[in-house]
Amino acid sequence: MSAGSRPLRVLMAEDSPEDAEFIERELRHVGYNVHPRRVDSAQDMARALREGPWDLVLSDYRIPGFGGQEALRLVRESGRDLPFILVSGAIGEEAAVALMKAGAHDYVSKENLTRLGAVVARELREARLRRERREALAALEASRRGLERAQALARIGSWEWDLSKPFQVWTPELFRIFALDPASAPPDYDRFIAMVHPADRPAVLAAIETLIAAGLPQELEYRITDAQGEAHHLHERAELDPDGTGHPARLRGTIQDITERVRMEVLLQDLGRLSAKGKLAAYLAHEINNPLAGIRNAFELVARAVPEDHPHAHYAALIRREIERIADLIRTLYQVYRPPVREEQEVPLAQAFEDLIRLLEPKCLALGVRLEPDLPTPGLSVRLNEGLLRQVLFNLAINALDASPQGETVLLRAEAQPGATVISVLDGGSGIPPELAEQIFEPGFTTKRDSDQAGLGLGLATCRNLVRAMGGTLTFTAGRGGRGTEFMIRLPRVEKEGTLPGERGA
Question: What domains are defined for the chain?
Answer without folding.
Answer: 3-131 (3.40.50.2300), 151-271+296-316 (3.30.450.20), 345-492 (3.30.565.10)
